[in-house]
Amino acid sequence: MFSSLLIDDPLLDALEFLGFKEMTEVQTAAIPQALEGKDLIVNAKTGSGKTVAYVLPMLQQILDNPQPWTQALILAPTRDLCRQINKQCTLLAQYTEIDTVIIIGGEDPKHQIKALQAMPDIVIATPGRLLEHVKREVLDLDAINILVLDEADRMLAMGFSDDVISIAHQCSEECQTLLYSASFNQRKFSELVDQVLTQPEKIMVDSARESNSNVMQKKILADDNEHKMKLCRHLLQNEKFNKAIIFANKKETVNSIAAWLQSKDIENAFIHGDIEQGLRNQLLRRFRGGEVKVLVATDVASRGLDIPELDLIINFDVPRNGEDYMHRIGRTGRMSGEGLAYTLVNANEWNKMVSIENFLKTDCAEHKISSLAAKFKGPENRKSSGKAYGKKRKKVKEKIRSVKKTKNRLRDRKNIGKRRKPSEKQDSDKA
């Protein structure tokens, strides 16, 4: 129970307002240790309540030690995740005077500079844009005594490791650092952990390879993208759902799916990296508010988005790896809710799908739609891992032909068709 925590009444009132009573597993394990000021490494699956697990103790520490300057920093890999975190912070701090500001790319730096000069209590930022303001000397990180790295695995994958380390080194020497991830890997995180954290406590609530047990996972065999389009249409017209996300690997594929569905009178919104931030926010608001029930997106929507009543995920393309798959399906089945995830698999994606299933130690049941049955029935010959055997190419030895080489000399070419001139010796003999 949140009421058992040593936190102030304004925070308890906010929790009651939000309807939060029982703590999740990660909150039970992490909040007390965070309140003690310990550095933490926390691994927990998406939708398990990680944001509250670090925001709540952060707010309490600020209430215990109020300062006239910024003292807490939350780093996240994407703009959308920063906005999601800010929303949670604002709701939990609604009965206090604690204020926050978002520092992300795609927005006017002038407004951000003005907001930072007002000395907010908490800054929520992406690493790149934050460093730009630090170089402008708008923000002094030396006063930061609480640093949170949210979705740290994603920041590493996006190449932010050096930026994060640079930011951490500029924070207060006494800074408490909390690293949160849904797929912690000791080897990948070793440099970051060694340079940023001090004797951290590890809280491994979920294995990095544990898939979401609240999500029913199925796969459907497909022949090509045209066939996949028809499968998507069938699922959207026949499955009962409140909201659905269709994930694709490429921006061009997202555009094609969205346009095709629209032509079939299935209204949808779509987002990817080329969509301007303002329009992206507008489209997400329409999706969250239920104006449109279908969102088509790249993996830009696979992290940080907490969409209420999202209960259907369709992987139009098989994700690139198991971690991306886990984050995609983790958009549904959140906070003990239930969800359904379909993955459309063609012949070229079979081995990749098997690798994901083996990585997550799960087996997606094969779902068949009789009216849209694929010609591809799965590989006939399979390895013990479930993957298809590759086609072995026979090596054909090239016959070496013996070709008589001839010299192609310039002097020979110059004398072609010309009568040979007698030498001086021959002329003297005749005389």
Structure, described:
With 431 residues, the protein is of the alpha/beta class. The protein folds into 2 domains: 2-204, 3-Layer(aba) Sandwich (Rossmann fold); 215-372, 3-Layer(aba) Sandwich (Rossmann fold), CATH 3.40.50.300. 38% of the residues lie in helices and 15% in strands. The chain has helices spanning 9-18, 25-35, 50-64, 79-92, 109-117, 127-135, 152-157, 161-170, 186-196, 225-238, 251-263, 277-288, 322-329, 350-360, 410-414, 424-430; strands at 40-43, 72-75, 100-103, 122-125, 146-149, 176-181, 201-204, 215-221, 243-247, 269-271, 294-297, 310-315, 339-345, 365-366. A 7-stranded parallel beta sheet has the order 3-4-2-5-6-1-7, with helices on both faces. Helix 2 packs parallel to helix 3. It is globular. It starts with 8 loop residues before the first helix and ends with a helix. The model is unreliable at 393-400 (pLDDT under 50).
